Amino acid sequence: MIAHYSSNDxxxxxxxxxxxxxxxxxxxxxxxxxxxTIVRRHIRPKIPIGETGELRKGIIRKAERSRKKGKKVYDLxxxxxxxxxxxxxxxNPGEAGSKNTKNGHAYYPKSVDAGFITRDxxxxxxxxxxxxxxxEGYLGAxxxxxxxxxxxxxxxxxx
Length: 159
Fold this sequence. Notes:
By secondary structure, this protein is α+β, with helices and mostly antiparallel strands. The chain contains 6 helices and 6 strands, in the order αααββαββαββα.
């Protein structure tokens, strides 16, 4: 196992991944998924519960589609299936200065995270749970991704 992750260790990880051949995508996907789970565990407790608790339940991971082999990226986002809950109607769109309410709806998770302008041009600050949770979980996620990838590579090369 790699104890300290220097650039040489990461190069060794990359070359070991190349030796696994077609199994590299499976290894990378598993490692990236576990890393995303670590970040999500740091974000969820920071989300305010609210009246229904749906905001905390509604954060999902979605895989990015890429043509490049050996690459996997997951995005943490709010479940589009819950848009009927997350999109709130705005009574007078544009009154508070917002230009992004074309359909007369505000996206509730974004308002809670980033903050919003009130009618009297005041500002309600956001919780910034996505950015803060991602920063907190970054090092743990990085370690998990590398450890998982190395373990899976060792298993594959031992076959």
